[in-house]
Amino acid sequence: MANRSRQTFIKRQKERARQEKQRIKSERRVQRNTDKVKTESIGGEDPDIAGVVLGPQAQDWLMDVLTDDERLAIEQAEEEAKKKAEKETSGS
């Protein structure tokens, strides 16, 4: 007879642990949804792509691989392109 009450007690503990786990999961779910709504309503912009500029991207990672001469040539080409763009905008 003593075993039965112990088994009942263990079952009750398991059931309480299961309910507690479900409660925690539902709280997390609600928290996640409220966080998602807050981030979407901040600027109406997806936070994953916020601040991304359209067009060609800087290739800073490439500078680690290049030799000094290649790096200098790229920098000079970029400066010439900037000067050319400035002339076009001031001339127009």
Question: What would your notes on this structure say?
Answer:
By secondary structure, this protein is mostly helical. The chain has two domains: 1-42; 58-92, no CATH class. The protein has three helices and no strands. It has helices spanning 2-43, 60-63, 68-91. It starts with a helix and ends with a helix.
Mean pLDDT: 81
Largest sheet: none
Tally the structural domains.
2
What gap, in angstroms, lies between the N and C termini?
98 Å
- Global structural class: mainly alpha
Strand fraction equals: under 5%
Q: In oligomeric terms, what are we looking at?
A: single chain
So how many helices? Answer: 3
Instruction: Please tally the β strands and state the result.
Output: 0
TL;DR of this structure?
The protein is mainly alpha-helical. It has helices at about 1-45, 60-65, 70-90.
